[in-house]
Amino acid sequence: MVTAVEKASILVVDDEQVIRKALCRKLTREGYLCTEAGNADEAKARLEEKAPELAILDIKMPGKPGSELLPEIRQSHPETAVIMATALTDTDIVIQCMKEGAHDYIIKPFDLDKVMISIDRTLRIRGLELDIKRYQQQLEQEVKEQTKEIRRIFLGAIESLVFALEAKDPYTGGHSRRVTNVALAIGQRLDLPPDMLEDLRWGALLHDVGKIAVDSAIQNKPGNLTPEEYNHVMTHALIGPRIVKPVANERVLEIITHHHARYDGNGLNQSVVGEDIPLGARILAVADTFDAMTSDRPYRSAMSPASVIREIEQCAGTQFDPAVVRAFLRIPTAEIMPGQA
């Protein structure tokens, strides 16, 4: 894993020299190797000389902005992680950048302590992605005839990572396993074939893997989240598919990507609506909500299963797919919450 001690290289791309210099001074003091670029052309030249582990791009620059430079970097230097630097008014552009491969974003004017947290988190994610990629390449070369087994091993390793992360949080321990049980129970009532049930299982187990990139202080905040904090938490649905992409099929990736989509299309930055939302994601939306509402959270105590079931039933046709809700309502409470029927 890359750390400051190992002197990860970072490219700072910003047209304002004062900002570049201040950020590079801080990065250098923290042990990073820092280079600068004042525009997109300079940035591409630095990348061609030596691709850094991380690039920090100003979204809005004269000439080619960082939002347009981002896809070029992701295409030509896929092992370089990218953090976007943005003003609070750039929310829509930030979300688009996250969809195009940015790992995180930092807000101007910079809080340097928060910038360092973002950099550390992003480098850890990059390290995980590269470890998975290298492990995949190594195993594929050694056992080309064992593709299915390789996929099982990889997904199992990532599954273990998710469980380890959840185990550290008293509010989410066991969440993915419980969501998986509910999702499969719904899928069985919908008579899904075995291959779809298997993909649903993996999508449910791994749906929150992207939360490795979410600030735990925000995730466990006892009060209401600000719009910026909520946007930050929701990026886990964009980051998760990128982490598991080397080993998961398209159906699993779509389940993870769209598991917070509302059936009526009114979700945050939602791109699909109604029946266009993958069925696995529509199932997972109900299962995830049920477990979240029947579990303690920093901001509220757990609700009773009966009250949560009534709430989900009331949201059929708006937040949830009515057919999925009907299937969910046919499941005995004892099957998904033993001892609490």
Alpha carbon gap, first and last residue? 46 Å
DSSP helical segment count: 16
Q: What general form does the structure show?
A: globular
Number of strands: 5
Q: pLDDT average, as an integer?
A: 86
**CATH homologous superfamily descriptor of the largest domain:** Hypothetical protein af1432
The H/E string reads EHEHEHEHEHHHHHHHHHHHH
Largest sheet: 5 strands, parallel
Number of domains: 2
- The CATH class assignment of the largest domain is Mainly Alpha
What are the low-pLDDT stretches, counting only 5+ consecutive residues below 50? Answer: 1-5
Tell me which oligomeric state these chains represent: single chain
Cross-sheet strand order for the largest sheet: 2-1-3-4-5
Helix content: 55-70%
- Tell me the structural class: alpha/beta
CATH topology of the largest domain: Hypothetical protein af1432
Strand content: 5-15%
